[in-house]
Design goal:
This protein has helices at residues 18-30, 79-88, 103-113, 138-148, 159-169, 211-214, 216-222, 224-228, 244-253, 268-277, 292-299, 313-316, 331-342, 346-363, 366-375, and strands at 5-12, 34-41, 59-62, 66-70, 73-77, 92-96, 122-125, 153-156, 176-179, 201-206, 233-238, 260-264, 280-283, 304-307, 323-326. With 380 residues, the chain is an alpha/beta fold.
């Protein structure tokens, strides 16, 4: 029977984390350490996932706590999780994930402050992206800093997250960071030649249809003339969300319906098919902490045209080698980025794609990422 436990506390039961959790479970089992995930809630009101389709290769529990929503944000209060941590506090290590502003995370931070919980056994999992902060005022800044300051160890996926945590804590002092990149199952995301031959340039854009974060209308508005002046250019947007009707109306009113298609929600195998059929990956987000789709695109050998607000841009993009970036709020920057991509011939696009897959192999191999992470965790 294992004595040590490694517990991941996170907000909702998202299928996109299954590969990460399964890989952690596999690696920790070899070290005779039990791995468990404790979800604050079974599902999200603002996301529609059919979790029954995803087999979980790790042990997990789902809290029966309370949740409430304010706009597009969900907050969780989980007394059962607090009790579980208290019961297992001496033999376990805990990674506290999900949104930093959930009441459950606040309570944990207070119990650390009052030394009821040993701060050395806790890691705050932060995908913070200072370019994606939604609220910027003194009260929110104070509360965010208060919670973060109770932790001495931070699990982060990127350079952007490291910089963001330092900005939150308002310090340049040494902080204990543990790099855990977002990963995807590279065995599934393998490029294959498309059976369909197109004489067009196709951009694939997987995104939730939420304007304030993904900036669909923001992007299309800035490049409308470019799209209309390039009749062989197509944009395929895969995803669903609360702003679907508004985005669809914008596309029709602006005469973009021949060039821009909303594909709706696609299953994973359908997503992979669209990657194979496309020429480059597009993600002009206004706010995107650390998008997994960027890592998918790298493994699928796609050139990247992405916003510099994407949290993993520093790891994923080498400008003019595997793609281009732009400031999504600057019209000239957006236009220049798209022009640079559209003027590349097909053979150059393939060259950029090969560079993307090489970056994936260098930085995002699942086994290597998890091994490197666990090597730095004391007590494992």
């Amino acid at each position: 029977m294992t004595e040590k436990e490694f517990i991941m506390i996170t907000d909702v039961n998202s299928p996109y984390r299954d590969h990460l959790f399964s890989t952690l479970n596999h690696k920790l089992k070899k070290k005779n350490i039990a791995f468990k995930v404790y979800f604050m809630k079974s599902e999200s009101k603002i996301r529609r996932w059919n979790n029954s389709l995803f087999k979980k290769n790790y042990k997990y529990m789902i809290s029966n706590g309370l949740s409430f929503s304010l706009g597009m944000h969900e907050f969780h209060y989980n007394l059962d999780i607090i009790k579980y941590i208290f019961k297992n506090r001496k033999k376990s290590l805990f990674i506290i994930g999900g949104s930093w502003n959930s009441p459950t995370t606040l309570i944990i931070s207070l119990l650390i402050q009052f030394k009821i919980f040993n701060k050395n056994n806790f890691y705050l999992w932060s995908e913070s992206n200072y370019k994606s902060f939604i609220f910027k005022n003194s009260i929110i800044d104070f509360l965010r800093k208060f919670i973060f300051s109770k932790f001495v160890k931070f699990v982060v996926p990127s350079e952007m997250a490291i910089k963001s945590v330092k900005l939150i804590l308002k310090t340049d002092k040494k902080i204990n960071f543990f790099l855990l990149p977002n990963i995807v199952n590279e065995k599934k995301f393998t490029p294959e030649p498309s059976k369909i031959k197109y004489n067009k340039i196709i951009a694939f854009w997987p995104a939730r249809l939420h304007e304030n974060s993904k900036g669909i209308i923001n992007f299309l508005k800035k490049v409308k003339k470019l799209i209309l002046n390039n009749p062989n250019f197509r944009i395929l947007i895969a995803g669903d969300g609360p702003d679907k009707n508004k985005i669809n109306t914008f596309i029709k009113v602006n005469g973009l319906n021949k060039s821009v298609r909303l594909l709706g929600y696609l299953k994973e195998n359908e997503i992979i098919k669209k990657y194979n059929e496309s020429d480059f990956f597009l993600l002009p987000s206004l706010r995107d902490p650390c998008p997994l789709s960027v890592i998918e695109a790298l493994w699928m050998s796609k050139p990247l045209l992405i916003s510099d607000h994407c949290g993993n841009i520093n790891e994923a993009l080498i400008s003019s080698t595997n793609g281009f970036s732009f400031d999504p709020k600057n019209s000239l920057s957006v236009e220049t980025g798209l022009i640079n991509m559209l003027k590349l011939p097909k053979n150059k696009l393939r060259e950029f794609g090969h560079a993307s897959r090489l970056i994936a192999k260098q930085k995002f191999k699942s086994d290597e990422c998890i091994d490197n992470f666990l090597k730095k965790i004391k007590g494992i």
